[in-house]
Amino acid sequence: MLLHLANFLSQYQSVFQVVNYLTLRVILSALTSLMLCLWLGPWMIRRLVEGQIGQSVRDDGPQSHLSKAGTPTMGGAMIILAIAISTLLWGDLTNLYVWVVLGVTIGFGAIGWVDDYRKVVEKNPRGLPARWKYFWQSVVGLGAAVLLYLTASTPVETSLLVPLFKEVALPLGVFYIVLTYFVIVGSSNAVNLTDGLDGLAIMPTVLVAMGLSVFAYASGNTVFAEYLHIPFIAGTGELAVFCATIAGAGLGFLWFNTYPAQVFMGDVGALALGAALGVVAVIVRQEIVLFIMGGIFVMETISVILQVGSYKLTGRRIFRMAPLHHHYELKGWPEPRVIVRFWIITVVLVLLGLATLKIR
Fold this sequence. Notes:
two-stranded antiparallel sheet; 14 helices
């Protein structure tokens, strides 16, 4: 919005042309979403407390979590609001990718909101039944996948890129839709599974978003794309603005979500953020890099799959409790230690993902 206003005003005053610089808009979008979250946070927490919209806690988990019962949840709504406002302010609204990522983020956020509302307001412990949750996730995920497939203008936009190799791109054809669906829905649920400790999910989300912003900026710039031997995909540079809004909003939310948390994001935030990372990775053709950088999300998901599978097949549990972060809590690790160590692992994994830009 401000980009188009600045372009209009630049006819009368050349200083407004500075807004055309993508790097400036990336910085300003991050700061805008950060300040929006810091401003909205206290108000939203008060409203959630007044509405008695508090987190319920399982009594079969770590005993230290019992004190968290009643902590306001659904705080992820302010993350989505900050992301949407900042993207609309600083993004190029003529860019299809901007609308796709916003649509997926808001769509998955709406699914999470319904689930949270049923759990904490209507006091229905099941929330949104799993079959309906996955149905609506599939509707949004498949909708985005089909739209991206139909609007792809070059073969590389529907090919699977393999990191570390300059020329390896596997044409997917219609299977691109299947891959995109699984990346978006899988990433959404992986972040949701990770969101079990104060600040555990939001900081890795910020770090991965920052990593993806580098890929988005490079793949949308002909000079950098050629230099780094990655495909040039016109328009993806604007996704750097979107990723910056995730990073800014995430840091703003962490101000209130850091241990001991004043508010939880709930499914409304976790499902939306995970889907946002997934759809950005798909558009910039870095699904495998997302798998690397989001290794914590992958580990948490695999731990649940292994735990459920082992218990159904053998009657035995591999971990003391799944997802994985609860396993380490029950082993005696204090919650802040689990959180910070998972953050450190994510920093390393994001750096490894970024290293694939040069090691080709």
